[in-house]
Amino acid sequence: MHELPMVMELLSMMERKARENHLSKITEIDLRIGELSDLVDECIQLYFDTAAEGTCCEGAKLVFEKNPAILRCTKCGRQFPYARSFQCPDCGGSATLVRGTGTGFVVKQIKAL
Ligand SMILES: [Zn+2]
């Protein structure tokens, strides 16, 4: 469901990268998927296989890794990994998600020809 726009974004990122770096073909993409995102590995793969046809990413292998969510307490400033609660284990204050962790997706590295 949420995976199609994500895959289209990934493909346009990859095409830009291929153009800028004069790569003819991207063979592997290592992704880090936010643990709080609704993105499902299998669905990404499914959409990717279809959407990548005819692009520089056709047949590329996707490697999935989780991007853990890190929280920061708004009261005492402590940072801790998300464990099904947004409450600080130290002071009980409420915590917020550290930007760039746990959501969306990040391309960690690619392999190309
Ligand atoms: Zn705290």
Compact description:
The mean pLDDT is 96. A 3-stranded mixed sheet has the order 2-1-6, with helices on one face. A 3-stranded antiparallel sheet has the order 4-3-5, with no helix packed on it. The protein is 26% helix and 30% strand.
Structure, explained:
With 113 residues, the chain is α+β, with helices and mostly antiparallel strands. The protein has a domain of 77 residues: hypothetical protein PF0899 fold (2-Layer Sandwich). Helices cover 26% and strands 30% of the residues. It has a 3-stranded mixed beta sheet with strand order 2-1-6, with helices on one face. A 3-stranded antiparallel beta sheet has the order 4-3-5, with no helix packed on it. Strand 1, helix 2 and strand 2 form a beta-alpha-beta unit. The structure holds zinc ion (ZN). Zinc ion binds next to loops.
Topology:
Blueprint: H1 3-20, E1 26-34, H2 41-51, E2 61-67, E3 70-73, E4 79-81, E5 95-97, E6 105-112
Parallel strand pairs: 1-2
Antiparallel strand pairs: 1-6, 3-4, 3-5
Helix pairs in contact: 1-2
Bound molecules: zinc ion.
Measured distance between first and last alpha carbons = 31 Å
What percentage of amino acids are in beta strands? Answer: 25-35%
Bound molecules: zinc ion
SSE order, as H and E? HEHEEEEE
Low-confidence stretches: none
What is the chains' assembly state? single chain
Structural category is alpha+beta
Specify the CATH class of the domain at 3-68 and 102-112: Alpha Beta
Radius of gyration: 17 Å
List the total number of helices.
2
Mean pLDDT: 96
Assign a percent range to the helix content.
Answer: 25-40%
Which overall shape is indicated by the principal axes computed on the Cα atoms?
elongated
Biggest sheet details: 3 strands, mixed
Give the strand order of the largest sheet, numbering strands 1, 2, ... along the chain.
2-1-6
Give the name of the CATH architecture of the domain at 3-68 and 102-112: 2-Layer Sandwich
- Please count the beta strands (DSSP E, at least 2 residues each): 6
Q: What do we call the CATH topology of the domain at 3-68 and 102-112?
A: hypothetical protein PF0899 fold
